[in-house]
Amino acid sequence: MFSSTRVIHPGGFIEYRTETLTGFRTRICPERLKRGIGNSCVPEYSSDGCPFCPGLVESVTPVFSDGTRIRVGESITFPNLYPFAAYHIVTVITGAHSTVQFTPSQVADALSGQLIALKNQDGYISINWNYLPSAGASIPHPHLQGLVDNTPDTLPAQYINSSSRYYKQYGTPYFSIVKLHEEQSKRSLAGTRLFWYAHPVPCGEREIRCILPITTVSEFSEYIDDFCADLVEILGLYRDLGTSAFNMSIFFGTEKESDYFTAFCSIIARINPNPLSTSDTAFMERLHLEPVILTLPEDLADIWGDYLKAKLKTT
């Protein structure tokens, strides 16, 4: 599934990893965790003038062509006022301006609102979440974003195209092989409802992926409850490790790729917002397009196991 080369230096090691299918490369440098650039304290953000808070969200956000917004539970979905995709929607997850811990039902309602708006769209769909400004959220109030374009974005395109070639060569869907391989590795996360694992060639810090048993967005509703139960637990692990900020994307394919492409979710931890922190994205990530990772995926799976054991002791 991937190749790895470890270079030893006086302070420890650097591990270079390359994903065989896509050629995606990353470098893992655990000693850089010792720099202490993060901060577990998340500042309070004022709700004054927030366009996603109750009272304003109903009056300042756009509406769909029929003059409505989509409401599911606490969530409210509407078109993005400043789109960067052919079809771009926003879902405000909850009326609370600052939410540290989400319930599975809150996230499930928000995802359901996204599905209502996305299910009849043609093209390549993703559902995305930037949580907190240090993860790219221009508005701190928690919200999801759904994107649809005629062609897949760079990362999903790599998997779609490479999976097509793999299927033609071997007659087996690539993601089924990944799942079989990772289930037997020490990177698999035990105790989840769906299949989650610490991705061995991470594109961001503490990347955890879910391989969904579907291809298209229209199939997702059947698995939302299980997905959200798992997701909330994984976000609990991040908080336990002192990380609140994160990015999440769920990438879906189209019917024509159903033989060989599987929808998947990727979550990465981001540095918490505070005035004393250095960004966790620099020239390597943005210009070299090669991320520098601090946590070994194999260690992350062990940390997950310790997290579950500690949780059981307190319940």
Structure, explained:
- The mean pLDDT is 95.
- This protein has 315 residues and is an alpha+beta fold.
- The protein is built from seven helices and 13 strands.
- A nine-stranded antiparallel β-sheet has the order 4-5-6-8-7-11-12-10-9.
- The chain has helices at 57-60, 104-118, 154-170, 174-183, 224-240, 283-286, 297-314, and strands spanning 2-9, 12-19, 25-28, 70-72, 75-79, 87-92, 124-131, 143-149, 195-198, 208-211, 246-251, 264-269, 292-293.
- Strand 4 (70-72) and strand 5 form a beta hairpin.
Strand arrangement, largest sheet? 4-5-6-8-7-11-12-10-9
- In the predicted model, the low-confidence regions spanning at least 5 consecutive residues are none
Supply the number of helical segments.
7
Q: What is the correct CATH architecture?
A: 2-Layer Sandwich
Report the CATH superfamily. Answer: HIT-like
Question: How widely separated are the two ends?
Answer: 38 Å
> Based on helices, strands and strand pairing, what is the structural class?
alpha+beta
Rounded radius of gyration (Å): 20 Å
The helix/strand order is EEEHEEEHEEHHEEHEEHEH
Tell me the number of strands. Answer: 13
Helical proportion, percent range? 25-40%
